[in-house]
Amino acid sequence: MDTQTEHPLAIAEAWAEAGRQVAIxxxxxxxxxxxxxxxxxxxxxxxxxxxxxxxxxxxEGAVISExxxxxxxxxxxxxxxxxxxxxxxxxxxxxxxxxRVFLERLG
Length: 107
Known about the structure:
With 107 residues, the chain is α+β, with helices and mostly antiparallel strands.
């Protein structure tokens, strides 16, 4: 499987079929300058592997960290990153954008 070219949801399905626990992050809303459009996906498994993109930079690091908890508990989360947040510069949204990401466990 080529995770560079295959769609993240197809990768998530393959990982789940292989017995891995998987979380899916989906961009559900953007404001201003955002690096990825609504509908973009990042999939993360219980081993810390990931594919796709919801933003790039440290936003994805934060989403991957949150995914471990979502996989463990099964409780979905709504994550928001933007210039109004104290961590906006740290997560790579210093250019005026905000994104909202829904994170859920597959299955």
